[in-house]
Design a protein that fits this description.
single chain; Pyrimidine Nucleoside Phosphorylase, Chain A, domain 2; four-stranded mixed beta sheet; 18 helices; Pyrimidine-nucleoside phosphorylase; 1,4-alpha-oligoglucan phosphorylase activity; glycosyltransferase; EC 2.4.2.2
């Protein structure tokens, strides 16, 4: 059976067999499943669904078609459960730069395989690449040895590891970016002054079962013993509805159990960016601020929760309260910052940027966004902030495309805060001339009301 025939079978609503799913994954990797047919597959899964058996088979096929690691045996000399952490992608999400050194400082071995991000969802390796000298393409042996030596390393996922996941996500992000273009004009409206419903087509972009197979497949390819996923939902995420995010989370946990692994899923609000900084160098700077005990509460809180869930999965804490408190203490005491410094130095960077942020890439251009009226801010639209970053050069459309590490946005105000007319709401910066459309896009992310509102919770739920 050809890979295209497998897609046709799913379009008819038929159940796929394991060998058919493997043939389809092979087609994704060897190019015999063209992009148009890959899009057809995503649509078919959105309409027809995948059973749990199909999803598990697809995750395994994605993991096994390509190079693999076996961290359980490769790091058998390092005590502790090897927990894999992955995110479905968010705007301003720098929590890995905080949570990973914090749990490593507590003795949990952290072998983090990270992929490049697409669209406004930069990966950890993209952010770390903004640090002058940092090397993430360090190779398997150096990666494993560093975990053995200091308990923390990051390696950029090789293109040969779970390549089918890359192919599927590339097509999904093409659709995601097309939707951004349709949904958000320069003014962020539909031409009649109304902001469109970004969730109208959101669930079709990444069906929950397909998302589980893709992201779990990446972790299985690395051979982690426990699986943690940070599921973003909202205007700046692949999942626009909480129903889809919850379906993803619950399926993630069920399949983890079937694989004989502990699993957990943290459902996270992505209607507005995390923290005040968006863009790779900006986010590194803010992560350091959090590690120094001075950063935004939402970034600190989410980092503590994700780190706490890693400790629970590793069975080094008995309750979430104990786990979160231990992560907080690692940050408060400075142990997490010291581990972060050791980490970046071991991977080739000069850690002087920690005390001298000006050593990070600096922009040459800026656009300041001012408030056009006074009022109370509604959630700052993460989709529009991400779209502005993309236009300013701070995000990529293809995995092989460069991005400008100096490009970013600083949000001076966020949800529930009062602002006066003329006050600066945000600053958009870049290493190249900033298109007017990017500044207009960022300006339209700020909407106001004349009523007081409550600040939204960052963590919506945890499924385990």
């Amino acid at each position: 059976m050809h890979a295209v025939d497998v897609v046709r079978k799913k379009e008819r609503g038929e159940t796929l067999q394991v060998h058919e799913i493997r043939r389809m994954v092979e087609g994704l990797v060897d190019g015999t499943l063209p992009e148009a047919e890959t899009r057809a597959l995503i649509r078919a899964v959105s309409r027809r669904g995948l059973s749990e058996d199909e999803t598990l088979a697809l995750a395994r096929a994605i993991a096994e078609t390509g190079d693999t690691l076996d961290l359980s045996s490769d790091l058998s000399s390092v005590p502790g459960v090897k927990v894999g952490k992955i995110t479905t992608g968010g705007v301003g999400d720098k929590t890995s730069l905080v949570a990973l050194p914090a749990v490593a400082a507590l003795g949990l071995p952290v072998a983090h395989v990270s992929a490049r991000g697409l669209g406004p969802h930069a990966g950890s390796v993209d952010k770390l690449a903004a640090i002058p000298g940092f090397r993430s393409a360090i190779g398997r042996e150096a990666f494993l040895k560093q975990v053995q030596d200091i308990g923390l390393a990051v390696m950029e996922k090789p293109a040969s590891m779970a390549p089918a996941a890359d192919r599927l996500l590339a097509v999904i992000y093409d659709a995601f970016l097309e939707e951004i273009g349709r949904t958000y004009g320069a003014e962020g409206t539909d031409g009649a002054g109304r902001k469109p419903d970004a969730g109208a087509e959101g669930s079709a972009l990444l069906p929950p079962a397909l998302g589980v197979a893709v992201f779990m497949g990446r972790l299985l390819a690395a051979g982690y013993e426990a699986l943690l996923v940070d599921v973003k939902v909202g205007a700046g995420a692949l999942f626009r509805s909480e129903e889809d995010a919850r379906s993803f989370a619950e399926l993630w946990v069920r399949l983890s159990r079937r694989l004989g692994k502990k699993g957990a899923a943290v459902i996270v609000n992505m209607n507005q960016p995390h923290g005040q900084e968006v863009g790779t160098a900006n986010e590194v700077r803010e992560a350091v601020e959090v590690l120094m005990g001075r950063g935004p509460d939402d970034v600190l809180g989410l980092s503590m929760r994700l780190g706490g869930e890693m400790l629970l999965l590793s069975e080094t804490a008995k309750t979430i309260e104990e786990a979160v408190n231990r992560v907080y203490e690692a940050i408060r005491s400075g142990a997490a910052l010291l581990k972060f410094k050791e980490w970046v130095e071991r991977q080739g960077a000069d850690a002087a940027f920690i005390d001298e942020p000006a050593l990070l890439p600096q922009p040459e251009y800026e656009a300041v966004i001012g408030a056009q009226a006074e009022g109370v801010l509604l959630p700052v639209d993460a989709g529009l902030v991400g779209a502005a970053l993309l236009l300013a050069g701070g995000a990529r459309r293809r995995l092989d495309a460069p991005l400008d590490p100096a490009s970013g946005a600083t949000l001076y105000y966020k949800e529930s805060e009062k602002v006066s007319r003329g006050e600066a709401l945000a600053r958009l910066v870049a290493g190249r001339d900033i298109p007017d459309e990017a500044a207009e896009m960022l300006a339209s992310a700020f909407r106001m009301t004349d009523q007081n509102i409550m600040y939204s919770h960052t963590v919506i739920d945890v499924v385990k």
